[in-house]
Design brief:
Elements lengths: L2 H13 L1 E6 L4 H6 L2 E3 L1 H10 L4 E5 L2 H10 L4 E3 L15 H10 L3 E6 L4 H5 L3 E3 L4 H7 L4 E5 L2 H10 L4 E4 L5 H4 L3 H10 L4 E4 L5 H4 L4 E2 L2 H10 L4 E5 L5 H7 L4 E4 L14 H10 L8 H17 L2
Helix pairs in contact: 1-14, 3-4, 4-15
Bound molecules: 1,3-dihydroxyacetonephosphate and iron/sulfur cluster.
The site of 1,3-dihydroxyacetonephosphate (13P) has 14 residues, from helix 3.
């Protein structure tokens, strides 16, 4: 064990802290985490954990959600500038407009959104529970924010609803093209295509499986197939290789790299544990309002 990892272990004990990490952070950071997972799993862990401090290796909306669910806990971000651009790609004015237009409207907010956007929403979803939750809502009209691609994927699975899309996107996932996938498939025709629903429709059309990061990892791990074309951020490669050392994974695209997720480093984890810097703060009013759709998600996704 390196010196810095020993120091982190010691600090975790002293501060009664746990480290949560998303699958998109660097391998080195995933290795020191107590829990790694997709957005839904990490939100559940944040809610259940009895540690006093949570170090969240991810992006702002993840740290914010952990704090909203646990106001009494200290939530530390290794790098405060790690933000998800998509989290800002919807606006409160448009939500208001939609609510005036449709009497029976549910605003469904992908968890990749700011606390401010969550305050104006009826329920949150992640890529692993969005279909289930939208299906179960009593409302016919659904305004899905901010991600257009996930919204369209959900709409296809729930044709009985009128899903209104918003034009947000993840630059990492939309950088993957159908041509990228076809080129790999030509070389490895037996490979199955596993895609995240934030990908464009042209990529999802080629997929054998569409799911969240943990969905992709589970599918590849349980499958008898030996080769896979992965259409999501490259960080999932770590867990895919740990769980499946004999299988082959080919990543589609050339920009499937989230620069914000990669701002998390082992050194920064150690620094915030030592200093208590970068604590997530949310006003009481915003916290109370944004807790409603988050709690509703945790309840409906059970
Ligand atoms: P999931 O891990 O929930 O699939 O989310 C992907 C993502 O883009 C997180 O930023
Ligand atoms: Fe946001 Fe995309 Fe990065 Fe996830 S991968 S944090 S959705 S920019």
């Amino acid at each position: 064990m390196s010196e810095i990892v020993k120091e982190i272990e010691q600090l975790k004990k002293e501060k009664n802290a746990v480290i949560l990490a998303h699958y998109y952070v660097d391998d080195e950071v995933q290795k020191i985490a107590d829990y790694i997972g997709d957005s839904y799993y990490l939100a559940k862990i944040a809610k259940q954990s009895d540690a006093e401090t949570i170090v969240f290796c991810g992006v702002s909306f993840m740290g914010e959600s952990a704090k909203i669910l646990n106001p009494e806990k200290t939530v530390l971000m290794p790098d405060m500038s790690a933000d998800c651009p998509m989290a800002h790609m919807a606006d409160a004015e448009k939500i208001k407009e939609m609510r005036e237009k449709y009497e029976d409207l549910a605003v469904v907010c992908y968890i990749n959104s700011t606390a401010e956007l969550k305050c104006h929403s009826d329920v949150c979803v992640t890529s692993s529970n969005a279909v289930k939750i939208v299906k179960a809502l009593p409302n016919k009209n659904i305004f899905f924010i901010p991600d257009e691609n996930l919204g369209r994927h959900v709409a296809k699975q729930v044709p009985e609803k009128n899903v209104i899309l918003n034009d947000g996107f993840c630059h990492v996932h939309v950088s993957i093209t159908a041509d990228n996938v076809r080129q790999i498939k030509q070389k490895y025709p037996k490979a199955l295509v596993l895609a995240h629903p934030e990908c464009k429709q042209e990529v999802l059309d080629l997929a054998d499986y569409i799911g969240s990061t943990s969905g992709i990892i589970d599918y590849a791990s349980k499958s008898d197939n030996e080769e896979f074309i992965i259409c999501t951020e490259c960080g999932v490669g770590y867990e895919l290789r740990v769980k499946n050392p004999n299988k082959k994974f080919y990543f589609a695209g050339t920009k499937h790299f989230c620069p914000n997720m990669k701002l998390n480093t082992v050194e920064k984890v150690c620094h915030v544990l030592k200093t208590g810097e970068n604590a997530v703060e949310i006003s009481d009013e915003n916290r109370k309002k944004s807790l409603v759709p988050l709690d509703r998600m945790l309840d409906m996704a059970k």
